[in-house]
Amino acid sequence: MAAPRILVVDDEADLRELLEITLLKMGLDVDSAATLRQARALVEEHDYALILTDMRLPDGLGLELVREVTASSKAAPIAVITAYGSAENAVVALKAGAFDYISKPVALDALRVMVRSALKLSEAPAPQQDGSAPGSRMIGSSPAMQSLRAQIGRLARSNAPISITGESGSGKELAAREIHAQSSRASKPFVAVNCGAIPETLMEAEFFGYRKGAFTGATDDRDGFFQAANGGTLMLDEVADLPLPMQVKLLRAIQERRVRKIGATVEEPVDVRIISATHQDLARCVEQGRFRQDLFYRLNVIELSLPPLRERIDDLAPLVDAILARLAGPGQATLGPGVLDALRAYSFPGNIRELENVLERALAFANDGVIEVGDLSLKAARPGDAAAREPAPAAASVAPLELAVELEPAPAPAAAPVADPVPAPPGLGPNGLPSNLPEYLSQVERDIIGRALQQTNFNRTQAAALLGISVRQLRYQMQKLEIVAPDDNA
Ligand SMILES: Nc1ncnc2c1ncn2[C@@H]1O[C@H](COP(=O)(O)OP(=O)(O)OP(=O)(O)O)[C@@H](O)[C@H]1O
Question: Taking Cα atoms as reference points, which of 136, 116, 9 lies closest to residue 61?
């Protein structure tokens, strides 16, 4: 079999030669061009496994070649070589369709990694006729889903950072996994990190790892998320929750493609593709000074927006079938009359995760695996639920099982003093005082947080805003008080 053929486009003879030698040593065939004109002629004539072009050429910009190659039917992966410190150029090239970029002075180890990654693209599994990838878990064939699949297929052929936006539970992580699975990185790890769930003090160690003895308790060397995802994809979920000091460190790691473990003296190269996701408006976070503009610019090279379930309601029936088959076994559960219509009429603020929870709960109530409208619990919260004690907006009407269990009222309160106009909260003794103050306060806090979550349909950002605390504080309290939201177990 012929060796893959690479085209190097650079007017600097020394650099061109260095690249040629490196690629030849990797067992590849190499053509080279010193101008755009020469490059165009070669691209016309041959099929390249990778094109590597400098940004500035004597007769034009490498960016022009990026645009032409990306638009052509051949669509070979094309990577750009950018001058040191010109991050903007790299971002512009990635947006124009470049597969990846490499900065001058060219680090040969990084070059080799990039070339191997490009070569693996041709080995990636081919999409099926409907545009879905083999083994895909993504269900739906609505126009919105078809367009999403096509975008995912294109994005999988690049190393550019992607920012996925979409409502809670709309499938952001699933889309990120799909991109990874269809990419040349598929055989390497996909690591998803919930940025809002890591205590601030542990962040650096979690992301970059540490050396033995770096701090008290560091009894062994440990890798961080970057090392764990090396060669693969690192998904930063709820990226808007990253504290500002960590944003600076993350930006550096992304730009330099190197990280330093805590306590280490040298940096190590890492090759990860970053996919970030949030249900917040990151641009707004930038305006509000909560998110660094430079990091936003770096993460947001390509945007992928996931439609909410209510905007692709045609997908509801196949989704219900697939979820029921997964939960009960194929053909074991069916829908009674009117159930699909009831589901179609519902707005699903929690999207597909909420649909999964609704069906799981309904199955628990269903007789002989036949789900009736009444089993869906789409309208009223159960008596005794936190939501039932407080008027909640219509959208928050589903009483999720897990939270309901967690929010079960505390042991029956003793009678409140007769003169007291306010009913005594649960857990108070006959003297109107709690017998265990910390336990009592935890219960009050648990109850209030539960109500805020119910009212906002488990949107942690909104719940935190209602309570005047940060999302981080809310997550921390939820963890401490063992409040489990339905989506935590999905
Ligand atoms: N198109 C789809 N087909 C089948 N299942 C889906 C689809 N989209 C999402 N799901 C399922 O819905 C659930 C939620 O998806 P996912 O975790 O990807 O959402 P998310 O947007 O990342 O959520 P969050 O905003 O809470 O981080 C998962 O169980 C996922 O497998």
Answer: 9
Index of the ligand 1 atom closest to the CA of residue 279: 25
Q: Which atom of ligand 1 is nearest to the CA of 174?
A: 18
Both tokens assigned to 20: 């040629």
Spatial neighbors of 233 by CB under 8 A, at least 6 apart, are 176, 179, 180, 183, 185, 188, 189, 190, 191, 272, 273, 274, 275
Q: Which two tokens stand for residue 256?
A: 């330099």
Nearest protein CA to atom 31 of ligand 1, as residue: 174
Ligand 1 neighbours, Cβ below 6 Å, are 137-140, 166, 168-174, 237, 279, 319, 352-353, 356, 487, 490
CA 352 / ligand 1 centre spacing (Å): 6
Q: Please give the number of the atom of ligand 1 that sits closest to the Cα of 170.
A: 21
Q: C-alpha angle 30/33/34, rounded to 5°?
A: 140
Here the tokens at position 188 are 């390497």
CA distance 175 to 304: 9
Q: According to DSSP H, which parts of 329-367 are helical? A: 339-345, 351-365
Contact 450, 406 (CB under 8 A): yes
Whether 261 and 220 have beta carbons less than 8 Å apart is answered as no
Which atom of ligand 1 lies nearest, measured to the CA of 322? Answer: 4
Ligand 1 center from residue 87 Cα (angstroms):
33
How far is the C-alpha of 226 from the C-alpha of 206, rounded, in Å?
9
pTM: 0.73
ipTM of the complex: 0.98
pLDDT digits (tens, 9 = 90+) for 367-400: 888 999 888 877 433 333 333 333 333 322 223 3
